[in-house]
Amino acid sequence: MTALPNCLLIVTAEVDVSVETDWNRWYDDVHLPDALACPGVLAGRRYLTSGEISESDRGQGRRTSARLYTTVYELDSPAAVETKEFAAMRGWGRFAPHVRSQTRVVVGLA
């Protein structure tokens, strides 16, 4: 990753254990390379956090055990997620029913 990116795309997902092996294979071998080939996507790195997490929903808190995947992409600008190439490779297809939670945030740093 570069020292000072202009923009980050941060994606998190919690995936059902029943598809986790296939999910990781697809993400590492297909999705991540496709994303990195898009114009304006400079770098990307995946992380896995496992253990107890705190969640809140409408003021109600709870603690659960989870495995949360996070991918941080460096972008040259927020426009990188609006290209036709990026739109064409987005989507988790057959995994969508197995993704329990997901977030996607584009953060401009410049």
What can you see in these coordinates?
The chain is of the alpha+beta class and 110 residues long. Helices cover 21% and strands 47% of the residues. The protein is built from two helices and four strands. Strands 2-3-1-4 form a four-stranded antiparallel β-sheet. The longest helix is centred in the N-terminal third of the chain and has 17 residues, at 20-36. It starts with 6 loop residues before the first strand and ends with a strand.
Give the termini separation.
16 Å
Q: C-alpha Rg, in Å?
A: 15 Å
Oligomeric state of the chains in view: single chain
Which sequence of strands runs across the widest sheet? 2-3-1-4
Secondary-structure element pattern, one letter each: EHEEHE
Q: Considering DSSP H and I runs of 4 or more, what fraction of the residues is helical?
A: 10-25%
Shape: globular
Mean pLDDT: 88
Q: Enumerate the spans where pLDDT stays under 50 for 5 or more consecutive residues.
A: none
Helix/strand-derived category reads alpha+beta
Strand content: over 45%
Main β-sheet, in a few words? 4 strands, antiparallel
Key traits:
4 strands, globular, alpha+beta, 110 residues, four-stranded antiparallel beta sheet
Write the layout of secondary structure elements.
Blueprint: E1 7-15, H1 20-36, E2 41-57, E3 60-75, H2 84-89, E4 99-108
Antiparallel strand pairs: 1-3, 1-4, 2-3
